[in-house]
Amino acid sequence: MTYCVALRLNRGLVFAADTRTSAGNDNVAVFRKLHYWRKLGERVIVVLSAGNLAVTQSVISILNEQLVEALSPGAESLFTVPSLYRAARLVGHAVREVHRIDGPSLEAGGSSFNPNFIIGGQVGNEVPRLFHVYPEGNFIEATGDTPFLQIGEHKYGKPILDRVVEPNMRLGEAAKLALLSFDSTLRSNLSVGLPIDLLIYERDSLDVRREKRIEQDDEYFRKLSTAWSEALRTAVARMEEFKV
Predict the structure, then answer these.
(1) What does the alpha-carbon distance between residue 238 and residue 244 come to, in Å, rounded to a whole number?
(2) How far apart are the C-alpha atoms of 54 and 44, rounded to whole Å?
(3) Which pTM does this prediction carry?
(4) For a tag site, which of 6, 112, 128, 149 has the least CB within 10 Å?
(5) 3-class SS of residue 201
(6) How many whole angstroms separate alpha carbon 208 and alpha carbon 241?
(7) What is the rounded radius of gyration, in angstroms, for the C-alpha atoms of the chain?
């Protein structure tokens, strides 16, 4: 399994995804689940993926083949769509195509068809947008009321985001919250693991300037985790005890 989160803010977008893939206790590997495409000065599109790795990789491969005229003559692609909405529809169509080909075999073997994707970015003068694409190929969009989206093992990292995320916060502050959300998830779910891929998109930059892979020995993440644990212990200690 995996965990991915993305935040839509007034200043831009923040994306984070873990890299752990597990096919049993003795078959754990690292695979990138954060992908992006860019045309400098024109568009940036980021896709996060969760679910069956073979399925999600097939969807990403379809999106990449659409960029090559010889492989997909005349096909609309992430480099030609006029909006993020149309990009989300491309991802949805790719999901349905993979289900058409592989879905029956997966279901016959007792495996569910469960890919989920987050797609976000900016095309031209359009404001940055964020969508969650479901296994059925349909999708929802993040709004001011719900400015973040999660896929995969999201339940452990959701409470802090529910309490703190606001659209007007700084991008670095939002990235800190995304990593705290991961810290909570890593402590409670062994199917999610480091490294974490992090990408910060600055509104109207139409470029990817800030990205990092958080490795096991990352000093900032270690300090953040320690400080968060200490802050929670202090907060609990200061609260009035329950009395009957």
Answers:
(1) 19
(2) 25
(3) 0.96
(4) 112
(5) strand
(6) 48
(7) 19
Place of tokens 């492989």: 71
Q: Give the CATH fold of the 3-238 domain.
A: Glutamine Phosphoribosylpyrophosphate, subunit 1, domain 1 (3.60.20)
User: pLDDT tens digits for 34-90?
Assistant: 999 999 999 999 999 999 999 999 999 999 999 999 999 999 999 999 999 999 999
On the 0-12 / 13-18 / 19+ scale of CB atoms within 10 A, 53 is middle
Q: Which two tokens stand for residue 223?
A: 């300090």
CA angle 129–130–131, rounded 5-degree value: 130
**Sign (positive/negative) of CA torsion 160, 166, 169, 172?**
positive
Amino acid letter for position 183: D
Please work out, in degrees rounded to the nearest 5, the angle formed at the alpha carbon of residue 134 by the alpha carbons of 133 and 136.
120
Which residue type sits at 108?
Answer: A
Low-confidence ranges of the chain (pLDDT < 70): 23-27
Q: Are 91 and 47 in contact (CB under 8 A)?
A: yes
* Model pLDDT, residue 24: 56
The letter for the amino acid at 173 is E
> Side chain identity at 51, as an amino acid letter?
G
Residue 189 has which token pair? 């779910």
User: Measured in whole angstroms, how far is the alpha carbon of residue 232 from the centre of its chain?
Assistant: 26
State the pLDDT at residue 28: 80
Which is nearest to 185 in space by CA: 215, 214, 153? Answer: 153
Residue 103 burial class via C-beta count within 10 angstroms: exposed 0-12, middle 13-18, buried 19 and up: middle
